[in-house]
Amino acid sequence: MRSLLIVLLILLSIISFPSVSDWFNAQGQAVIRHDDKQAARFQATQNALKKALLVAGASVSSIQQVVNGLLTQNEINIRASGNVRSLELIDEIYQGDLVTVTIRADIIPVEKQCFSADYRKGMLLTKAHVKYREQATVGEIYAIDAQLIENLAIQLKQNSRFTDIRLALKPTTSFAQINHNAYDRQLKNLSISLANISDSQYVLYAEITDLSFDNIIRNSWQFWQEDVFDRNFAMTLYIYDGANGELIFEKQYKASAPWSFAKRAKVDVNGETFWRSEYGAMITELLTKATMDIDNSIMCLPTQGKILQVNGNEVLFNLGARQGVKIGDEFSLLHLNNFVNSQGTTYAGFNISNYKVKVIQTTQQTAKAITLNNDLLGNIQINDIVVRY
User: Fold this and answer.
1) Which residue among 98, 195, 235, 271 has its CA within the 20 to 30 Å range from the CA of 243?
2) Do 330 and 356 meet the contact criterion of CB atoms below 8 Å apart?
3) CA–CA gap between residue 17 and residue 83 (Å, rounded)
4) Residue 170: left (phi > 0), alpha (psi -120 to 50), or beta?
């Protein structure tokens, strides 16, 4: 264990440190596979360290490959977020095939890169679309379209520092059909409409594009057992700006892992048995990567809210303590200025006003602000925008 922590510390060390640092406690878990406790312990420790860094303001991505219990490749990238001075293992618990470790990390925060990183941005997560539903027949895992997004929401709520999640899992949106037909205008209108209904700044769509099996038998030498094949998984995530309908993020995630269930077994994708399997754990790892990518992509984008009321020199808008807004925070005001091009496509435009406002009162979902010089807000209207860059 000591050698593993030394490796981790060497990877995370920086030559010089500022004088101020903070201690962060975090827990990490990992499934023990093939009775390899050392590899699981390292994975759990790494998971705990990621959580500590994210809480401290870090954005971390990692790649690791463990073969026969030996660490053959490990890379941790920390993006301008925090440095680890030291790392201590506090506790280590084994329960069945699960190991839980608790660490304490001495993390030195760095300067914030952007003011908008102070706030969580409202994001609506919609039900995923399975592109080839016949591929879900084995295991009858059709319900993965909703459960995948529910698990992504859990990851974002636990580990994301820049999203405030809303879920829309019961209805299925028309995104997939519109996207496949390349109807750009309809995609924009759909995203703007969903953002307005859910009071969100961004809308996330997901498409599961591969649930197929490989042809190579994983356990051909074990003739007494049922054949085990690798099953593929691929998904593409899209994030659209709810103000103007523009695409701001698109990325595909794919991997494969052994499908350990019987061919004719009906698999419950809502249960722990599925998510603790190698296939389920592989999907979870992809969701972890997606969570970090989403945070990185929206961290420094402007935080926008809609004005709900205007009264003299006061405005009430739909960002509050839940999103991280505090008394004294300052926002700029924008006028909505939609326009139509020569092809008839509508675009959302904004004119920056001369007004700035300072927050004087917050609730969980709203904030009240007044102009800096007590000027009357003569031309600011409901549904205009407050923004923090």
Assistant:
1) 235
2) yes
3) 8
4) alpha
Domains and CATH numbers, the chain: 2-109 (3.30.1660.40), 115-298 (3.40.50.10610), 303-388 (2.40.10.410)
**What is the pLDDT averaged over residues 124-145?**
96
Q: Please state, in angstroms and rounded to a whole number, the distance separating the CA atoms of residues 125 and 173.
A: 11
- Tell me which residue has tokens 């698999």: 267
Asked if residue 230 lies in contact with residue 218, where contact means CB atoms within 8 angstroms, the answer is yes
- Cα distance between residue 173 and residue 245, in whole Å: 15
d(CA 242, CA 194): 8
Give CA–CA dist 115/106, Å, rounded: 25
Q: Which of 220-229, 243-252, 296-305, 379-388 has the lowest mean pLDDT?
A: 220-229
Contact at 8 Å (CB) between 75 and 63? yes
Q: Which two tokens stand for residue 95?
A: 């329960």
Range 187-193, long-range pairs (CB < 8 A, 24+ positions): 187/240, 187/245, 187/247, 188/240, 188/244, 188/245, 188/246, 188/346, 189/245, 189/346, 190/245, 191/240, 191/241, 191/242, 191/245, 192/242, 192/243, 192/244, 192/245, 192/348
In sequence order, the β-bridge partners of residue 77 are: 61
Q: Which residues contact 82 (CB under 8 A, 6 or more apart)?
A: 53, 56, 57, 58, 107, 108, 109, 110
Strand partners, 78: 60
**CA 22 from centroid of its chain's CA atoms:** 25
**Partners of 365 in the β-ladder:** none
Lookup: tokens for 307: 């004005």
